[in-house]
Automatic annotation (TrEMBL), chain A:
<protein>
    <submittedName>
        <fullName>SDR family NAD(P)-dependent oxidoreductase</fullName>
    </submittedName>
</protein>
<keyword id="KW-0560">Oxidoreductase</keyword>
<dbReference type="InterPro" id="IPR002347">
    <property type="entry name" value="SDR_fam"/>
</dbReference>
<dbReference type="InterPro" id="IPR036291">
    <property type="entry name" value="NAD(P)-bd_dom_sf"/>
</dbReference>
<comment type="similarity">
    <text>Belongs to the short-chain dehydrogenases/reductases (SDR) family.</text>
</comment>
<dbReference type="InterPro" id="IPR020904">
    <property type="entry name" value="Sc_DH/Rdtase_CS"/>
</dbReference>
<dbReference type="Pfam" id="PF00106">
    <property type="entry name" value="adh_short"/>
</dbReference>
TrEMBL record, chain B:
<dbReference type="InterPro" id="IPR036318">
    <property type="entry name" value="FAD-bd_PCMH-like_sf"/>
</dbReference>
<dbReference type="InterPro" id="IPR016171">
    <property type="entry name" value="Vanillyl_alc_oxidase_C-sub2"/>
</dbReference>
<dbReference type="InterPro" id="IPR010031">
    <property type="entry name" value="FAD_lactone_oxidase-like"/>
</dbReference>
<feature type="domain" description="FAD-binding PCMH-type">
    <location>
        <begin position="28"/>
        <end position="198"/>
    </location>
</feature>
<dbReference type="Pfam" id="PF01565">
    <property type="entry name" value="FAD_binding_4"/>
</dbReference>
<keyword id="KW-0560">Oxidoreductase</keyword>
<keyword id="KW-0285">Flavoprotein</keyword>
<dbReference type="InterPro" id="IPR006094">
    <property type="entry name" value="Oxid_FAD_bind_N"/>
</dbReference>
<dbReference type="InterPro" id="IPR016166">
    <property type="entry name" value="FAD-bd_PCMH"/>
</dbReference>
Length: 247, 455
């Protein structure tokens, strides 16, 4: 892993931080992209100190569509070797708030879907030309079936998953693996104030599972694995029953 | 890492908060509160605006035994996710870190590089922030002092939203009020600590049986030059055997041990309160005593095992059952305090207040904080299960301690009275003066501070 660099997109999130630790522990260098520069500087210092790898904070805003191609090119220039992408940028406004204020839903869509799509689109020719690299993106179990309480967010994650299917096909010939992680709820700032969620997992454990799974190649993966049977059941629930559930 | 910042009073961000019932390590008193767990500095600052104007308290790993880390009815800011290492200079040993970094992480990252925390409590799960706020001490206090002596400076987030970089030179009063300051002066957001170089990852440890208290105290005196010294007392022993136990002394070992990551075990459930009765404890204590050699023998032991013996069993506090337990720890001046040491042991043994091993240490240095616990003398710590009679027992222990000119450790305490506190901590008025300056509206408060009359 020594000559690889992971570009962590949305690196201030707890899951991204944990994944960056995992990658650094395996000797990978890091580019840490996000908006909160003081926070990214702290993370970069920590990774360097603990693991002796190079870690560089980069200012990046997922919602700034016009900036994506330039950002991808700048990253490619920085890293002549193998460049892997970990996409963790994501927003989850409360459903009711996003309904009351449609611009909130629009902003979420930009962070969760259109921004990442623009960025990954810009990276596609770069990765294809290098014939190397992986893309790991954080989807969500919320994208598997739209729930009454959270279907705006769910729809954005479904869109991301669908985008990644085609993206993976596009890059398949060049040997670039694309993994869509169907993440269950993680114990992070995003879920802190929410009512207790089932099978809540710790970011460090999820990061370890994602790292291991990413090493095995692309596709889709439920993390934690329990969500695979759970979501299979939920997807199979007849509509009449599903519609009566209050979740 | 901005040194000085100013922020206007921010609005409450409801998504940062949720209702929780926190416990302290003794698990004897629940603390219902609203809690935030910021993952970055910006959110830490935002958490200064507590919902409903509630009183605020920072909290580390909740390893304090009593109400120092509880704020019932108030708001608590958990620092566990602010745990980054920010800078390290091998030449000076200076480490800059966020407050949620634990001693376990320090050991894991820096011991392989030949550095160790200069003072460390008996469990590695403690955070740096919590350690500074109680000016914690280790088994080397008699020579190395408490942790406060090794703090170069820190960043303190004040009630008004500004962050102050505080060193002994820049603001001596605020520095001394915050070392051992119980989280009441503000929230430590970065701590610059001087790590100590060590020759290897191990210590040479000698253990020796001590037949009674006099032998024990003589043993400590004879070992005053040893880097580490700690005594384990069988708190159930009475009469001629009162104060018998095992004395452990240790020196850094020039030669190390091969690395072998230990596998911690977890106590999966609360034991029924009955499991720890007089018989089982006295059997355990007897065994511990018998296992120690009569003639000291030297053994090479990993720092981890010597410094944090109890950490091998996670959640051992559940041993005491649902009711929880209390700890009593005090320090008594060397000569005139010795009779009181005996009376404390007698009082606990007489009440049949089953205690596991009690811990005896010799302290050598005065803590630098206004409310620091440490002072030269003998420190005695005892676990006592929570029971209906606990109040009377603790009142008796407090009386003995005050009369002997001793001091009770607030990190362990749930019972000290405001009068007892005033007698034991003569610098409390200076501490309150600093608080009035940096927190004029009383934004910070805890269960402990209200109980002791500090507001
Ligand atoms: C098994 C065991 C053994 C122990 N042995 C020792 C020992 O040998 N020597 C010793 O000295 N102590 C010992 N202790 C006590 C322990 O070291 C202290 O209680 C310590 O303060 C716990 O740190 P914490 O991170 O758990 O903090 P908490 O218990 O959560 O909080 C303690 C105090 O620190 C404050 N605080 C926490 N974070 C911050 C911050 N960022 N800024 C400002 N204030 C903050 C809190 O407000 C509170 O007042 C022991 C405890 C246990 C459980």
């Amino acid at each position: 892993m020594a000559d690889e660099t992971w570009l962590i997109l949305g690196a201030s999130s707890a899951l991204a931080r944990a994944f960056a630790q995992e990658a650094a522990a395996h000797g990978a260098d890091l580019l840490l992209a996000g908006r909160d520069m003081p926070d990214l500087e702290a993370l970069a210092a920590d990774l360097q100190l603990r693991h002796g790898v190079a870690a560089t904070p980069l200012s990046w805003d997922a919602a700034d569509l016009a900036a994506q191609p330039g950002f991808a090119a700048a990253c490619a220039e920085r890293v002549p070797g193998v460049l892997n992408l970990f996409l963790a940028a994501g927003a989850m406004p409360e459903q009711a708030a996003a309904e009351a204020e449609p611009s909130l839903a629009g902003a979420m869509w930009a962070v969760n879907v259109t921004g990442p799509a623009a960025l990954l689109g810009a990276f596609a020719p770069i990765l294809a030309a290098r014939k190397a690299g992986r893309v790991v993106a954080l989807g969500s179990v919320a994208g598997d079936r739209g729930r009454r309480r959270n279907h705006l967010y769910g729809a954005s994650k479904a869109a991301l998953a669908t985008f990644l299917q085609g993206y993976a096909a596009r890059l398949a010939a060049s040997g670039v693996e694309v993994l869509c992680v169907k993440a269950g709820p993680a114990d992070t700032a995003m879920t802190w104030a929410l009512p207790k969620l089932p099978f809540m997992a710790q970011p460090a454990a999820m990061a370890r599972a994602i790292w291991r799974r990413a090493g095995k190649g692309g596709g889709e993966a439920y993390v934690p694995l329990i969500w695979w049977p759970v979501m299979t059941l939920i997807r199979l629930l007849p509509r009449r029953i599903f519609n009566r559930l209050d979740f | 890492m901005a040194a000085e910042t100013n922020a206007a009073s921010p609005a409450v961000r409801p998504e940062l908060w949720k209702a929780l019932t926190l416990q302290s390590w003794g698990r004897a008193m629940p603390g219902p509160c609203l809690a935030a767990r910021p993952e970055r500095l910006r959110d830490l600052q935002a958490a200064l605006a507590a919902p409903e104007g509630r009183a605020l308290l920072p909290r580390g790993a909740g390893r304090s035994y009593g109400d120092a880390c509880l704020n019932p009815g108030g708001a608590v800011v958990l620092t566990e996710r602010l745990n980054r290492l920010l800078a390290f200079d091998p030449a000076s040993g200076l480490l800059l870190a966020e407050p949620g970094v634990t001693f376990a992480e320090l050991l894991r990252v820096f011991l392989p590089r030949g550095y160790l925390a200069p003072a460390s409590p008996g469990t590695a799960f403690v955070t740096l922030g919590g350690a500074v706020a109680h000016d914690v001490h280790g088994k080397n206090q008699h020579l190395a002092g408490s942790i406060g002596e090794h703090i170069a400076w820190f960043d303190l987030l004040l009630a008004d939203g500004s962050t102050r970089r505080v060193s002994p030179e820049s603001d001596p009063a605020l520095f001394q009020a915050t070392i051992g300051g119980l989280g009441l002066t503000g929230i430590l957001s970065a701590i610059c600590l001087r790590l100590a170089p060590v020759p290897s990852n191990a210590l040479l440890v000698r253990r020796q049986r001590m037949p009674d208290l006099d032998a024990f105290l003589a043993g400590f005196e004879a070992q005053a030059a040893a880097a580490y010294a700690v005594g384990w007392i069988d708190a159930l022993a009475k009469g001629a055997a009162l104060g018998r136990g095992v004395l452990e002394v240790a020196e850094p070992s020039p030669e190390g041990l091969p690395d072998r990551p230990p596998k911690p075990r977890r106590l999966p459930f609360d034991l029924p309160g009955l499991a720890l009765n007089r018989l089982s404890i006295s059997a355990f204590n007897e065994l511990y005593w018998r296992r120690a050699p009569l003639i000291p023998q030297e053994e090479r032991v990993a720092y981890e095992r010597f410094l944090y013996p109890l950490d091998a069993i996670l959640d051992w506090n559940r041993l005491y059952g649902r009711g929880g337990f209390h700890q009593f720890q005090c320090v008594l001046p060397f000569r005139e305090g010795e009779p009181a040491l005996r009376r404390l042991l007698e009082t606990v043994a007489a009440g049949g207040n089953a205690s596991f091993l009690a811990v005896l240490k010799a302290m050598g240095r005065e803590g630098i904080g206004m409310l620091s616990f440490a002072r030269p003398g003998y420190s005695l710590a005892l676990d006592i299960p929570a029971r209906p009679g606990s109040a009377a027992l603790f009142a008796a222990l407090e009386r003995i301690t005050v009369e002997a000119g001793g001091r009770i450790y607030l990190a362990k305490d749930s019972w000290l009275s405001p009068q007892g506190f005033a007698a034991m901590y003569p610098q409390a008025p200076d501490f309150q003066a600093v608080r009035a300056r940096v927190d004029p509206d009383g934004a910070f408060s805890s269960g402990l501070s209200r109980r002791l009359g500090l507001g």
